[in-house]
Every structure is written in C-alpha cells, then in structure tokens.
Design a protein that fits this description.
Low-confidence stretches: 1-22, 177-195
Strand order of the largest sheet: 5-4-7-2-9
Structural class: alpha+beta
Shape: globular
Strand content: 35-45%
Number of helices: 2
CATH topology of one domain: Jelly Rolls
CATH architecture of one domain: Sandwich
CATH class of one domain: Mainly Beta
Helix content: 10-25%
Radius of gyration: 25 Å
Number of strands: 9
Mean pLDDT: 82
Largest sheet: 5 strands, antiparallel
C-alpha cells in the first residue's frame, strides 16, 4: 500500500509539472496608436528566433467596429513578410470582440515548436475597409514574445523582434541596431587626448 501511494504521488508530480510548463505568447507592446484591420489592411510583424521555443497563443488588443460580420485570422509563418508555410493558425469570429473598447483577445492554436530562424506573425480579415462599423480596429505596437504570464518579455538571447509598430513588415532581413560607429570608451579618450595635443602644438607654433 505504501509503495502504491508513493508511485501515485510521483505520477501526480510528473503530471503537474507537465501541466505547469510555460508556453510563449506572441503579442505587441501596445503604443496606443489605432490601426485598421480589414481586407485592404492585413498586418504583418517579423521576428527571428535564436533558441528553441514553443508557442501556443497570440494576443492582440482589438475591437469590432459594431456590425462586423467577418472573422479575424491569425497566422504564423516560417519566413519573413507573411511568406513561406503557415505553421500555426487561429480564427476568431466577430462575437469574440468588444464593440466599444480595445480588449486583449487570445488566438489559441496547437503548441508549435519554433527552431532558430526567421518567422512572421500576421492578422487578416475579409471585413471591408468601410464603413467603420463593419471593420476591425486594433492597437499598434512592436511584436513581443512574452512568457506564459503575459507580462515578462522573453530575453534578447531567445529572439529579435521587428522594429515596425504598424504591422507593415516586408521580406527584408531583420537588422540589429548598428553600434559599430560608436567608439569604445578607451578609444574615445585616446582620440580626445590626441586632439588636445595637436591643438596645443599648433597654438605654440603660432605664438613662437
């Protein structure tokens, strides 16, 4: 009986550990600006992954124009600019969205492993661009990968986000910020000493 209880406890601990495993959430760091989402304005964000991660959710603050009848579709591609192969997708109907305020809504999909490489997340809808009450609106922002708590951003050693905030990413490579033009502190100090000495010598010659 004791052995049975120990085995049961061990099995429960393993099960609880697997349930608690964190998945990554694809979202935006909302800037406050408003964007349309309709048949003429799909949204695309790029990011690259440098370590294996698993995603199963995308979260966007959106609202229904009031009389929207078309669905909103999230798709995750294994290439930049919404090209390549769709590796995850999720669809939400208009009833899932508030008609009066921007509320974060979850697009859930099957747990998907992302290996190092380039990816793009897209939102689209067949809703018309006008009138406004038949389209979707969303909050703009840079794409962010959050841990399961939806608050803590994944570290830069795991991924590099696109810099655009309006969802208009292309297939152009993601380029990290260029810091090569900024001299190291020791180099900058050496340059300042050299300039000072040169100026001093010139002044001494002019006085002599």
């Amino acid at each position: 009986m004791r052995e049975f209880l120990l085995l049961t406890t061990f099995a429960f601990a393993i099960s609880a550990g697997s349930i608690a495993k964190a998945e990554i959430i694809i979202s935006l760091d909302q800037t406050g600006a408003n964007l349309g989402l309709n048949i003429n304005e799909p949204r695309i964000w790029n990011f690259s992954v440098s370590q294996n991660i698993t995603v199963d959710l995308a979260r966007f603050a959106m609202k229904n124009g009031g009389s929207t009848v078309e669905a909103a579709v999230f798709e995750l591609y294994n290439n930049l600019g919404g090209t390549g192969t769709v590796i995850a997708t999720s669809t939400l109907g208009p009833a899932n969205f508030s008609k009066s305020s921007y509320v974060p809504e979850d697009f859930s999909f099957t747990s998907t492993l992302l290996t190092p490489g380039d990816y793009s997340a897209t939102l689209s809808s067949n809703a018309p661009a006008s009138p406004n009450n038949q389209t979707y609106f969303m909050k703009a922002g840079r794409i962010v990968l959050f841990q399961a708590d939806g608050v803590t951003e994944l570290g830069s050693d795991f991924y590099t986000p696109d810099t655009n905030t309006d969802g208009t990413a292309s297939t152009a490579p993601i380029v990290a910020a260029d810091t090569s033009a900024v001299p190291e502190p020791s180099t900058a100090f050496g340059l300042s000493i050299l300039l000072f000495v040169t100026a001093f010598r010139r002044k001494k010659r002019s006085l002599g």
